[in-house]
């Protein structure tokens, strides 16, 4: 094979490899997308699970706050509770690139089946950042864990 044919063959192989990488990368979402919110009562803690598709969010930022507010507007979130816990999943979203919701459940709900947590709300879904808040009765410990297979953020609040 002459030098020109070899060069063309190498360029074709590189071009094919690049196209394969681009199509594979575009097939998988780069932002974890919220698909479901689950709650569960346990003997010593209440659990809220945020189910995602796609890659896992980084370790979320979480803190006890004096009140929950909606991202952007700063308006207070009307959620039952004496104490409030805010969790930010970044990257994360509850909508796809076309603006269609990936989580179609309620954006705010009460949790009468739980011992301490009284309510849940999505308080922000903007520019690849998903913010949720919890209202609960008694001051206690909190943990946030990110898990894979399937992708989820697990929030535990002591009872």
Quickly list its features:
single chain, 159 residues, alpha+beta, Immunoglobulin-like, 2 domains, 5-stranded antiparallel beta sheet, 4-stranded antiparallel beta sheet, 9 strands, 40% strand, globular
Task: Describe it.
With 159 residues, this protein is α+β, with helices and mostly antiparallel strands. It has two domains: 1-29; 31-158, Immunoglobulin-like. The chain is 16% helix and 40% strand. It has one helix and nine strands. The chain has one helix at residues 3-27, and strands spanning 33-41, 45-53, 61-65, 83-89, 108-110, 117-126, 129-136, 142-147, 152-158. The strands form two sheets. A five-stranded antiparallel beta sheet has the order 3-4-7-6-5, with no helix packed on it. It is globular and about 40 Å long.
Task: Produce the secondary structure layout.
Elements: H1 3-27, E1 33-41, E2 45-53, E3 61-65, E4 83-89, E5 108-110, E6 117-126, E7 129-136, E8 142-147, E9 152-158
Antiparallel strand pairs: 1-2, 2-9, 3-4, 4-7, 5-6, 6-7, 8-9
Number of helices: 1
Which parts are unreliable, with pLDDT below 50 for 5 consecutive residues or more? 4-27
Tell me the CATH architecture of the largest domain: Sandwich
Mean of residue pLDDT?
86
Spatial strand order of the main sheet = 3-4-7-6-5
The chain-level structural class is alpha+beta
- Rg calc: 21 Å
**Total domain count:** 2
Backbone shape: globular
Helix coverage percent: 10-25%
Largest sheet: 5 strands, antiparallel
Number of strands: 9
User: Can you identify the CATH class of the largest domain?
Assistant: Mainly Beta
Task: Write down the secondary-structure element order.
Answer: HEEEEEEEEE
Distance between the termini: 75 Å
Kindly estimate the percentage of residues that lie in beta strands according to DSSP.
35-45%
CATH topology of the largest domain: Immunoglobulin-like
